[in-house]
Specification:
Blueprint lengths: L5 E5 L9 E9 L5 E5 L5 E5 L6 E3 L6 E2 L3 E4 L6 E5 L3 E8 L3 H6 L11 E2 L1 H4 L1 H10 L5 H15 L8 H11 L6 H7 L4 H11 L4 H19 L5 H7 L5 H12 L9 E3 L7
Helix pairs in contact: 3-4
């Protein structure tokens, strides 16, 4: 990369705070393409590419073009993203479980699959993306998207007690057993697993592992001087080797070798 991206983080309006964690608008300016490794976090997104979409790959070898309006549900493996020069990306960062409530689709059906948003929201979402190009600011972009999302609130699925469990796990994945979480969700263990697959797309155990990994990753990012041993203890891993194994599973790299960004000439692009 030749220059740092310009990043705007914007908080949702009151009507959407139960669904949207935040919005991120990224203006990327660079002369050469590069590859970014996206770890397999426990995250859900609605993503707009007003100019041109990224390409993605499961293995960093063969890349496919993403839709310009994109839904990202559960991913349990890392993804390699080919970033092209002069790109705009708008992320709607959703709380876990929110995507299912908007699109009513069992989330395990789109596990590890980038999904065209037009298949769930129709051509209206494509028109929203086309309008984003003509806006003058990141705030105007978000206002357009929020108007669209607010219009969908009358059709969202009702919240269940388990939706609060999802948020609890993102912040404190190491503090509760599965049985305790099922009790908090007011369902049996089997119902808990079924609701997890439908509303999140993975098993409770996998979600907890991803949430714990995400917590460790963020902790290192915000406190780079912390040792991985300290982070492993803080996040509830058995030991540092346990953390390293999970890190490799969700990024393809060890903590020491993970850089996040690779030159495009390091991978074979299609």
């Amino acid at each position: 990369m030749d220059s740092e991206p310009l990043i705007h983080t914007i908080q949702p309006c009151p009507a959407l705070r139960g669904f949207v964690n935040s919005y991120t608008v990224i203006y990327l300016s660079c002369d050469e393409p590069f590859v970014r490794i996206q770890p397999a976090f426990a995250s859900e997104y609605l993503i707009f590419y007003p100019l041109a979409p990224q390409k993605y790959s499961d293995d960093g070898k063969t890349f496919d073009r993403l839709p310009q309006e994109l839904l990202i549900g559960p991913f349990t493996q890392p993804v390699y993203l080919l970033q092209v020069p002069n790109q705009i990306m708008v992320f709607v960062n959703l709380f876990p479980g929110s995507l299912h409530r908007f699109i009513h689709l069992p989330m395990h059906e789109i596990r590890n699959q980038p999904t065209e948003a037009v298949n769930c929201f129709g051509n209206e979402i494509k028109r929203i993306n086309e309008q984003l190009v003509d806006t003058d600011s990141a705030q105007e972009m978000i206002e357009l998207i929020e108007k669209f999302l607010i219009g969908k609130l009358s059709k969202v699925k009702d919240a269940l007690p388990i939706d609060q469990v999802f948020k609890l796990l993102i912040n404190s994945p190491e503090q509760h057993s599965i049985d305790q979480l099922a009790d908090l969700a007011c369902v049996s263990f089997r119902q808990f697993e079924r609701q997890f697959l439908t509303r999140i797309g993975t098993t409770p155990t996998m979600f907890i592992r991803q949430a714990r990994f995400g917590k460790a990753y963020r902790l290192k990012h915000t406190h780079p001087k912390l040792s991985w041993t300290s982070i492993a203890y803080e996040c509830g891993y058995f030991d540092q080797m346990h953390l390293i194994r999970e890190f490799k599973l969700f990024t393809d790299f060890t903590p020491k070798s993970f850089k996040g960004i690779l030159p495009a000439n390091r991978v074979a692009t299609a």
